[in-house]
TrEMBL record:
Superkingdom, taxonomy of origin: Bacteria
Name of the protein in question: STAS domain-containing protein
Domain STAS: 1-91
Pfam families in UniProt: STAS
Region of interest: Disordered: 104-125
């Protein structure tokens, strides 16, 4: 599940669960919404990411690259060493600022106020 929250200067993506090939169908819609918001700062909250593969990394890279082309910045918050390793192997870690001060809330707490939840598409059987 990916939620989008905005402020006057920041877009925050809160990602929960797997960020992988199985989720890729929703990536173009989310990317279009994030780019359309045109905020200078994109914060990607990865506290609740349970797994990320190269498809998920490519999605994050495309978001960071789009922001950079507009003069913005992308911050990864709550990314664990495994996620950072995937981005490093992809040669894209330098596209991101890493929030080393952030401490994730427990998974049972809500990620914040006012997010817009994107609808989940049913997976084929």
């Amino acid at each position: 599940m990916i939620e989008i929250a905005t402020s006057s200067t920041t877009t925050t993506l809160v990602i929960a669960g797997d960020l992988d090939l199985a989720e890729r169908d929703q990536f173009p819609e989310i990317a279009a919404r994030v780019v359309g918001l045109r905020r200078q700062l994109l914060v990607i909250d990865m506290c609740r990411v349970t797994f990320m593969d190269s498809t998920g990394a490519a999605f994050l890279i495309s978001l960071a690259d789009s922001g950079r082309k507009r003069g913005g910045a992308t911050v990864l918050r709550g990314a664990d060493e495994r996620d950072l390793f995937v981005l490093e192997v992809c040669g894209a870690l330098e596209l991101f600022r890493i929030d080393t001060d952030h401490r994730c809330e427990s998974a049972s707490q809500s990620p914040g106020t006012g997010p817009v939840q994107l609808p989940q598409r049913p997976r084929p059987s």
